[in-house]
Amino acid sequence: MKFKGLHQSLGIELVEIGDGKVTATMPVDERTRQPYGYLHGGASVALAETAASIGTAALIDLEKEVCFGLEINANHVRPKREGVVTATAEAVHRGKTTMVWDIRIKDEEDRLICISRCTVAIVAKKNGSE
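Structure tokens predicted for Hotdog fold thioesterase:
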């Protein structure tokens, strides 16, 4: 699958898409820092929702369904100024109309930067379109 969108602007790269698991990386650079030089919480949330949404898309029939982020929360537990962060998203609920994902974002030393939970809605396409 080739995905386009916000993740390209933030430098997010998909490392692995598996059955109920997604791994993605994002640089901590001028695109993803807040004005004080630290990783922006919104960038971490964008990384988390990207991983959850792509994971959901990999588990549904994209010919008949589309998915949208429904709810997300995040706890930012450690600051980061530079380098790369890695998100690992795992499906904890796979329903017909929603999926819930646990996303952990860590740094290069495997230290927890952010923990997030994202609920993704699954909606039937009408007449073959969204």
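The chain has two helices and six strands.
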